[in-house]
Amino acid sequence: MLSTKIKSRLCYAVGALLLVCAGYCALWFVASASLACVACNCEYSLLASQLRCRQPVIAGVLAVALLVSSAALAVLGYKVARPRRSSDA
């Protein structure tokens, strides 16, 4: 059984890793959007026929999902790490 300190640090570490991945996906979003602007007339969709027109949307959705997951793990790590109050009233 893991201690609460190890659990909270594990949540923070995985959250930090997901935050780095979200940053990478955000950069992927910007790069693929600028590269595909001419070919796709700056219109991107998940249902586009060309893969190049789908990449910015996929990267954006992935970046948001990873950012939300990172924030959720940070909150979970905080909740695990905070001291418990005893109800001796």
Structural summary, described in words:
This protein is mainly alpha-helical and 89 residues long. Helices cover 76% and strands 0% of the residues. It has two helices and no strands. The chain has helices at residues 4-40, 51-81. The chain is rod-shaped and about 60 Å long. The mean pLDDT is 90.
Strand percentage: under 5%
Structural class from helices and strands? Answer: mainly alpha
Uncertain segments are none
Note the gap between the termini: 30 Å
Shape: rod-shaped
Radius of gyration computed on alpha carbons: 19 Å
* Number of separate strands: 0
The pLDDT mean sits at 90
Q: Which percent bin holds the helix content? A: over 70%
Q: Characterize the largest beta sheet: strand count, sense, and whether it forms a barrel.
A: none
Order of SSEs, N→C?
A: HH
Helical stretch tally: 2
Brief account:
With 89 residues, the chain is mainly alpha-helical.
SSE blueprint and pairings:
Layout: H1 4-40, H2 51-81
Name a few traits of the molecule:
89 residues; mainly alpha; single chain
